[in-house]
Amino acid sequence: MTTAADIMHPGARWVPATETLDRAAQLMRELDVGALPVSDPNDPNERMCGIITDRDIVVGCVAAGRDPSRVTAGDLCEGTPRWVSADADVNEVLREMETHQIRRLPVIDENKRLVGVISETDLAHHLSDDQLAEFVEQVYA
Predict the structure, then answer these.
(1) Cα dist from 100 to 79, 96, 121, whole Å
(2) Is 140 exposed, middle or buried (0-12, 13-18, 19+ CB in 10 A)?
(3) In whole angstroms, what is the distance from residue 83 CA to residue 23 CA?
(4) Facing residues of 85 across strands?
(5) I want to staple 53 with a disulfide (CB 3.0 to 4.6 A). Which of 7, 35, 93, 126 is the partner?
(6) Metal-binding: present as a keyword of the record (predicted)?
């Protein structure tokens, strides 16, 4: 059985909700990623309160005429964050991403700690052509 841990990109990093978007963008560049899970710094367990993407920064901040050095990651987080357990079956991963039409899915361990992120690229490397086609149809519909 293929699990989330088998297909995820390991070593994901949090960005605190209080971090400015310019710093979040710099971290994305350093890590060569397009999204970062956002943690709640008021939670002693640093639980996820959202995810921020490079597109969120451009569209929700820069294009709106806002200053990324004054807007925080928490300011742009919306909705309920989604994640999957590291031992989740790949079908559960697909179901979660397809149901919620998301392209990146944080992966947590049994202690609720972030251990990785699954992206479309990760799926492309591990799914059959039929599974990948189904995913694309559901997420981009």
Answers:
(1) 11, 6, 18
(2) exposed
(3) 24
(4) 108
(5) 35
(6) no
Distant-in-sequence, close-in-space partners of 88: CB < 8 Å, separation ≥ 6: 3, 4, 96, 107
- The string of pLDDT tens digits covering residues 102-115 is 889 999 988 888 89
Cα–Cα nearest to 24, from 45, 111, 60: 60
Residue with tokens 């049994």: 110
CATH superfamily of 4-139: CBS-domain (3.10.580.10)
Residue 20 is given by DSSP the state B
Query: What strand order describes the sheet that includes 35-39?
Result: 15-16, 35-39, 48-53
Model pTM above 0.90: no
How confident is the model over 49-62, as pLDDT tens digits? 889 999 999 999 99
What gap in Å lies between CA 12 and CA 139, rounded to an integer?
A: 23
Measured CA to CA in angstroms, residue 139 lies from 72, 79, 85, 111 at distances of: 27, 17, 20, 29
Q: In whole angstroms, what is the distance from residue 5 CA to residue 15 CA? A: 21
Token representation of residue 31: 């890590």
